Amino acid sequence: MSFNVAIDGPAGAGKSTVAKAVAAKRNFIYVDTGAMYRTMALYFLRKGVDKNDEAAVNKACMEVSISIAYENGAQQVFLNGENVSGLIRTEEVGNMASATSGYLFVREKLVELQKEMARKSDVVMDGRDIGTCVLPEADVKVYLTASSLVRARRRYRELTEKGITCDLKEIEQDILDRDHRDMHREHSPLVQAEDAVYLDSSDMTLDQVVDAIGRLIDQKIDGQAGGRP
């Protein structure tokens, strides 16, 4: 029987970083669902697909094959056989992913792959609707968030460390715009699951967040009949 951890929350909340750390600490598989949507978005950008044209987006989906492999514990994402793991973290790709991830056909194509992975393995999965739609029966659910300014500062620091010139106010506005799209999209909007634990990381270190989620996992395991090692 697999053990599943779902971490949801808005853009820039640190979900991926936290999920990776939790998975590594517990020896679970980390499933970066955002990378899957970003990979799809990269294809749309390459093909010049209009993000507002749902019919064109759906058609392009049919041309896409996305697969995942793990190398030295790190998830590698492949688009039609090409490893694009290093190409999907730009602001342009992120904005396209946010704009198109709400389309039903896009979601259906990727959600089944995510569900299958969770059925077979102990996983930590992060995204926007993991606890509400993808893994509604997850053993532990967390809604991870932080203030928009804190999220913008984290993103600004990440980009500048890579030598990318950026503007803090523009990044924060992008985050607010993305929050609005994610929370108001027609299909699977961003919302805290009723049984998810709300965790605001604005004033927490990474280790503190990871430890907090670790305690939730331990509590769940201890409460299960027979327990788990």
TrEMBL record:
Enzyme class: transferase
Alphabetized UniProt keyword annotations: ATP-binding, Cytoplasm, Kinase, Nucleotide-binding, Transferase
Transmembrane feature ranges: none
Entry-linked Pfam families: Cytidylate_kin
Protein's cellular compartments: Cytoplasm
GO MF annotations, alphabetized: kinase activity
Keyword Magnesium applies: no
Residues annotated for ATP binding in this entry: 9-17
EC number, as in UniProt: 2.7.4.25
InterPro entries membership: Cytidylate_kin, Cytidylate_kinase_dom, P-loop_NTPase
NCBIfam families membership: cmk (TIGR00017)
Entry's family note: Belongs to the cytidylate kinase family. Type 1 subfamily.
Record-linked HAMAP family: Cytidyl_kinase_type1
Protein name: Cytidylate kinase
Species for this entry: Alitiscatomonas aceti
Native organism taxonomy: Bacteria, Bacillati, Bacillota, Clostridia, Lachnospirales
